[in-house]
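Morning run. Coffee first, then this:
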Amino acid sequence: MTGLDQYTRTAEQAAATVIAAYSTSFGLASRLLGGRVRRHIRNIYALVRVADEVVDGPAAESGADRDAVLAAVDALEAETLAAVASGFSTNLIVHAFAHTARSCGVTTELITPFFASMRTDVDVAQHDRGSHDRYVYGSAEVVGLMCLQVFVGADAPAGTVASDDLVHGARRLGAAFQDVNFLRDRRDDATRLGREYLDESRGAVLDRVDADLAAAAAVIPRLPADCRRAVAATHDLFADLAHRLRDGDAAGGRVRVPNPTKALIALRAATGAAPRVRRRRTAHHESSGT
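And here it is:
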């Protein structure tokens, strides 16, 4: 093992620690990923998590003002792009991400929109449908596309890219995940962060989520075998969350999937079962409450 190999392994361990601390659901799904891709997906989500934290509170809580938060986002983006170009960073999380990007073919065309959405969080408090769609592309769809590039690009010849149908499915799945989280976090986003990402009723958003999940489910069986089960489990986890959001107003707190249900979802996916698709219900049957 070279010095760079050891440094990269240490960076990947740091990335795994970050994502484990912030997301139990991610840990559940990642265990269904094959060894070829697991560490790369963790590397991507660790950087995404750090960037989220810069704009979602910890930086401001430390005393950073608006300009300082924006400067921190800019610096993180610049360091990430430089590391992807050079193959090294003194920031372990950035180094791990750059290793994945260089190994699997994640390009700047996916990285820069992500950081653009992070900057949006600093200054935009109220989104309309157009700004919502632009934000979701940068904050969620491109993350799905990064993961897809890992699925097809890890241990593959340079220049290997996903088919158009898989790209479409990855974008739809990322959009569904983001909209579900917007609904789950709507109260906290409004009261703690002063943000509103949605200008539609809950029912209308969930109709869109159901359509996005159905479109993604149609292509998940065409993913590489060592990725398919994890993506199916995550799809079904968010489908369950969407179902729970339809059935309640989250008055008791953030809507969550109980651990026994998570285990059943993971078990079903592990057997190779196809993702579940719920019948789409139209908005006029739903409450207009938020």
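The chain has 13 helices and no strands. Good start to the day.
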